[in-house]
Amino acid sequence: MDPEIAEKYASWCRSIVVEASAPSPLLAKACEELVGGIGSMLGRMPLAGGTADHGRCVLLCAGNSSKLHGVVEAAELEALGEEGYVLRTAGEPGRPFVAIAGHTDRGALYGAFHFLRLLQTGQNLNELNIIEKPAAKLRMINHWDNMDGSVERGYAGRSIFYRDGKIVTDRKRIHDYARMMAAVGLNAIAINNVNVHETETNLITSELLPSVAAVADIFRAYGVRLYLSVNFASPIQYGGLTTADPLDPEVRRFWAERAADVYRHIPDFGGFLVKADSEFRPGPFTYGRDHADGANMLAEALRPYGGIVVWRCFVYDCLQDWRDRKTDRARAAFDHFRPLDGKFADNVILQIKNGPMDFQVREPASPLFGGLRHTNQVLELQITQEYTGQQKHLCFLIPQWKEILDFDTYARGEGSTVSKAATGELFGRPLGGIAAVSNIGDDANWTGHLLAQANYYGYGRLVWRPELTAEQIADEWTRITFGHDPAVVSTIRRMLLDSWTIYENYTSPLGVGWMVNPGHHYGPNVDGYEYSKWGTYHYADCHGIGVDRTVKSGTGYTGQYHDKVASRFESIESCPDELLLFFHHVPYTHVLKSGKTVIQHIYDTHFEGAEQVDKLVDVWRGLEGRIDGDRYASVLSRLQEQSKHAKEWRDVINSYFLRKSGIADEQGRTIY
Ligand code: GCW
C-alpha cells in the first residue's frame, strides 16, 4: 500500500476491540481477518482484544453492546437482520472510532470484510455511515467438480476439492476459498457437479459423509453453508431398490434415512441441488411423475432439519430432430414448469438459468421470471466462461448480468425486474436468491485468466447489491487487485467494461448463439450444432438467418412473456437489434435500427471485434513496468491468444456468410 495512505489508516487501526454477548467462532474469524488484513496492508499488526478507551480503534460488535450506545440504536441493529451490518464513525472529538456492528456475528463478519475493502480502495474513514443488507437471501455457488479431480466446464486447472475419487486431505486451498467466498458476501456452496456420476452418488452415504463434514466445517467457519448435488436414482444405485419413483414409500424412506444421516454429520447442512430429467440424468419422468412430485419428495425428507431443495429448471429435449421445426428448446423450461406453479413445497426453490437456452453470449431473460408467482426461485448464472471464451478470452460478465437483473418482466406492472423476481421480493416469496457456476480451479491465480477473477468477485458484489454498477465493480476489483496507479486503474477498468461487447462482436451475431465447436464449445463452427439433436439452430440459408419464435408465424415462444414484453419481441420493428435473430428469421438485406443491413452488420462487427482485441493487447502492453512482471506476462499471453483466435472467428463467420449470401462487403475487405 502507498505509504501515505497507510499512514492515514495507521492511527485508526492500532487496536481492535471485540464485543459480543457470547463467544462466537464467526466473530473470532472476523477479528482474525481484520488483524491479518490490516497487518498485511499497513505492515503493522493491530492489537486485538483491548478496550475502546485508548483513543482511535476499530470496534467490532455482534449484537447489542454498551459500547454502541449513542452510536447504533438497538432497533437499528435489529433491522439489519441475519446478515446486515453498520459501519459508522463515532466517538468523542479527539477519540473517534469506527464501529463495525452486526445484529449477528455473521453480519459483523461481512462488515469486517467491507471495512477491509474500504482500506484497499483508499476510502476516507472520518465520516463513515454505511448500512448494508444483502438483496438476496441465498447467494450461492455451484461447483461442477467431479471426484476424479476434473471440473466440468472448468478452465482454471483441477478441482480444489477432489483428487482420485476422494476428497483432498490437504485442505488449505479450500480454507482460502471459504475466506474468499465470505469476503465477497456469498453464503452457500454446492461442492459437486449437478451431473452426479457414480462415485459422487455416494457423497450422501456414511462412508463419505465424515469427509464431507470436514469440508462443511471449513465453510461454516466463514458463514457458508454446504449443499450437495444428488442423483435422483440414488435409491437404485446406492439403496438397492428397483425404483426411484418419488411416490414409492420405500424410496421416500430411503431419502428420509439419507437426510437423517447427512444431518447427523452436518447439522447445518443446506440441502440438495438437483438436475433431473435433463441431459440424460434420471428424474421423475421415468415413473410418469412430474417435477413437483420429485422435488417435494426430497423436500419432505429435508424439512425436519430445515434443509431446502434447489431444483433446476434446465429441462429440455436433448434428442431433438433438427428437421422438426415446431419443437423449440427455448420454450422448454417454461412449458415444463409454469403449469406446476404453486405445486412446490415451501422448502423447494426452482433454479432458473438466466436465459431460455444456455448461457450464450446474448439471450433474453427466461420468461419463467415473472411467469412463476407461487414458487420460490433463484436465478442461475454461469461465471465459468463456457460460451464466453473459456477464460482464454477476456469477457467481464457483470454488464451482461446487470442487463439480466434489470430486465423488466412486467409481471406486476413496470419495475417487475428479474432481480426482484429472483430475490422473492416481487411476489413476496419466503426464499430466493442467485446461484452461479464457479469459474475457479487449483490454478495458482484461481481463475486461469487473471482478469477472470473480476467475474467471481463481481458476482458476489452484485448478488449482495444488484444496484451496484458494472463500473463500480470493475473499479473496485481493479484497485483491490492492482492498487491505485491511475493509469493502471483506468486501463484495466476500461478493458473489463468493453470486453463483453468486444467478445460479442467477433462471435455469434445478433443473439443467434451456438456457432461453436460441439462438445468443448471453444472456437467458431457455424454449423457445428445446426444438424444436431440439441435443439440449437440458426437456420441460415442463402436468403437469411434466425429463428422465428413469434406467435404469428413461429414457435410461439414470445407468447411466454407478459404482454408488454411479448409484443416488443414479437414485432420486428420493436425487437432490439441485439436479439433480432433470436426472435426472427430475416433476409440478409433486412435493415437494422442501426441503419445497417444484417449482412453488413455481421461483416462490420467481426472486423471491428478482431481489431478491438488487438487494441486490448496494445493497451495492456502500455502497462508494462507498472504492474509486476508475472501478472503482466500471464495476462499478455492470454490476450495474444485471444487476438489470434478472434481473427479465426472473424474469418470463419464472415466467409461463411459471404458464401451463403453472395453479398459482398461494402468496404471490400478481405473475406475468404
Ligand atoms: O451448458 C450445459 C453444459 C453442461 C452442463 C449443463 C447444465 C453440468 O454444456 O456441461 O452440465 O449445461 O447446466 O446442466
From TrEMBL:
- List, for all copies, the residue spans of the domain called Glycosyl hydrolase family 67 C-terminal: 447-669
User: What is an example of a Pfam family matching this protein?
Assistant: Glyco_hydro_67N
Domain Alpha glucuronidase N-terminal per the UniProt entry, residue ranges: 7-115
Q: Which GO terms describe its molecular function?
A: alpha-glucuronidase activity; xylan alpha-1,2-glucuronosidase activity
Note whether Hydrolase occurs among the keywords.
yes
Q: Origin, by domain of life?
A: Bacteria
Coiled-coil annotated residue ranges, if any = none
* Presence of keyword Hydrolase: yes
Q: Name one GO biological process term.
A: glucuronoxylan catabolic process
Q: Which InterPro entries match?
A: A-glucoronidase_C_sf (IPR037054), GH (IPR017853), Glyco_hydro_67_aGlcAse (IPR011395), Glyco_hydro_67_aGlcAse_N (IPR005154), Glyco_hydro_67_C (IPR011099), Glyco_hydro_67_cat (IPR011100), Hex-like_dom2 (IPR029018)
Q: What is this protein called?
A: Xylan alpha-1,2-glucuronidase
Q: Which family does it belong to?
A: Belongs to the glycosyl hydrolase 67 family.
Question: Into which EC class is this enzyme placed?
Answer: hydrolase
Residues forming the Glycosyl hydrolase family 67 catalytic domain are 119-446
List the EC numbers from the record: 3.2.1.131
Where does this protein come from, organism-wise? Cohnella lubricantis
Cellular component GO terms, alphabetically?
extracellular region
- Catalytic activity, per the record? Hydrolysis of (1->2)-alpha-D-(4-O-methyl)glucuronosyl links in the main chain of hardwood xylans
